[in-house]
Write a structure and sequence with these properties.
alpha/beta; Rossmann fold; nine-stranded mixed β-sheet
Length: 487
């Protein structure tokens, strides 16, 4: 780590610090821009609180709202306004009457000098190391024109930094051309956005430093701002061990050439009720037998039916949960943000040493993305899991029960290293099921199909269906000797 990284200042929001490559460079100026209610002031309070926690003198310069209102709202959110100094430069009620009585003078001539004097006096008295200016765009109303606004803003920022302070300033979303140039006057730009039920943070500029690009999910809670950095596949590289993991079903392991490789992704695809989730649970049971921890994210049903169904088939999920070898997490798609879900997975892996992750199902996972790119989000998450040598099971519900064979309608099959598929068959007036392996990236596998049955004892897989054709087309028929025997 360089000396520059050691001297970085926390923004007060851990997730944002990760995006900013461990924090802000000291004695620089940063702009946080966003519309009303996007969290600009909240971020400023986090920034000042982080400094106050280290015993630093910090200053809140309010050009827009009354200082008393800001302090009241800060206390409601859990911040301690007594640890900060507030300089209230917002317009008072008297300004209205004075302007009515003095219409011969321009506002800039009346207000700039006293405002400047108050700032200088406060800085010289407090010597703050952190300053939050809310909102910088208010200077536009005491400037004579756009050029004067930019010159006034730049001179203010240079004065504050020249006194040894790191400055964070807020600004509303761009409403006119005079405000566009503010980005050129600062060392970093943070954009806060709120669209419908999705809030995001984007770093658009960070001079002299690297940062994580793109939009990152964010929440405003009763305790302030929480940021969930995106997982980027470029941050991870896989170290493949090649260790085979068996399912515990000898016939399935034979289909898979001995099992699946640790740290790779296995897609289990099939129509509703074909046994996909149950098949995944056998790998979870095998992991528990090795003393490894698993986590299952369920989207389309609460955990209780899954636990009860597994128990009746001889898979004691309740015992695994009690011994902390399994954690089942119900995921409500409208509750979690895309990057928030990734942060949940990351915490499971890094804090609890989880070694098997199962997503049940991909359709439910897609709903958490809120119109974001499914392929990119899934690819980044899987790259992270591979990097940590986590075995991943993706359960995909195929809508087509019969007819042309499809592994997934979502275009994500390329992300899987192994693909196991289940099919319904109609044979001799009965509904039957078949199982096969379509892909195994790191080894050979059995090319035949086998019949699959779900019984009171669990999953049973039969011998290869060597004399059956047309299964993938959904039109199975017996051929050769088997056909003669069936006649």
């Amino acid at each position: 780590m360089t000396n520059e990284q050691h001297s970085r200042l926390s923004s007060g929001v851990a997730g944002l610090d990760n995006i900013l490559n461990e924090g802000l460079l000291p004695e620089r100026a940063y702009l946080v821009r966003g519309g009303p209610g996007t969290g600009k002031t909240t971020l400023g309070l986090h920034f000042l609180t982080a400094g106050a926690a280290n015993g630093e003198p910090v200053l809140f310069i309010s050009l827009l709202r009354r200082g008393s209102d800001v302090q009241r709202d800060a206390a409601v959110r859990g911040f301690d306004p007594t640890k900060m100094t507030f300089l209230d430069l917002s317009p008072t009620a008297e300004v209205f009457t004075e302007m009515q009585a003095s219409r011969l003078f321009a506002p800039a001539e009346m207000e700039r000098a006293p405002l400047t004097k108050k700032i200088v006096e406060q800085i010289e008295q407090l010597h703050p190391t952190r300053i939050f200016v809310d909102a910088l765009t208010q200077l536009r109303y005491i400037a004579t024109d756009d050029f004067d606004f930019h010159r006034l803003t730049l001179s203010l920022l240079r004065f504050l930094m020249g006194q040894g302070a790191t400055v964070l300033a807020s600004a509303e979303s761009v409403s006119n051309k005079s405000e566009v140039g503010l980005e050129f006057l600062v060392d970093g730009v943070i954009i806060l956005d709120a669209q419908a039920d999705l809030r995001t943070v984007t770093v658009e500029k960070y001079a002299s430093s690297d940062f994580q690009p793109g939009r990152h999910s964010m929440r405003l809670t009763d305790a302030g701002m929480v940021v969930f950095p995106r997982l980027l596949s470029t941050d991870f590289s896989q170290e493949f061990t090649g260790e085979l993991i068996a399912s515990g079903i000898s016939e399935l392991d034979a289909l898979l050439g001995g099992g699946i490789e640790r740290g790779l992704v296995t897609l289990i695809a099939g129509p509703s009720g074909s046994g996909k989730s149950l098949l995944g649970l056998y790998f979870v049971r095998a992991a528990a037998g090795r003393g490894e921890r698993s986590v299952i994210y369920v989207y389309e049903e609460p955990p209780e039916p899954l636990i009860q169904r597994a128990e009746t088939l001889g898979i004691p999920l309740g015992d695994f949960i009690a011994s902390d070898l399994l954690h089942i997490v119900p995921v409500q798609p409208n509750r979690y943000l895309p990057d928030e879900f990734s942060a949940m997975v990351r915490q499971e892996v890094e804090d609890r040493n989880t070694q098997v992750v199962m997503l049940d199902t991909l359709r439910g996972y897609r709903l958490t993305l809120r119109d974001q790119d499914l392929v990119r989000s899934l690819y980044d998450l899987l790259a992270y899991l591979k990097y940590h040598d986590v075995t991943t099971l993706l359960i995909n519900d195929v809508e087509m029960i019969t007819g042309d064979f499809r592994v997934t309608e979502m275009g994500v099959s390329f992300t899987a290293d192994n693909i196991i598929f289940l099919r319904y068959l109609e044979m001799h007036g009965q509904m039957r099921k078949a199982i096969g392996v379509l892909k195994k990236r790191m080894g050979d596998f059995e090319k035949t199909l086998r019949e699959l049955n779900v019984t009171a004892r669990g999953i049973e897989i039969g011998q290869p269906l060597n004399d059956l054709r047309g299964i993938l087309r959904g039109q199975p028929e017996w051929v050769g000797r088997a056909k003669e025997e069936k006649m």
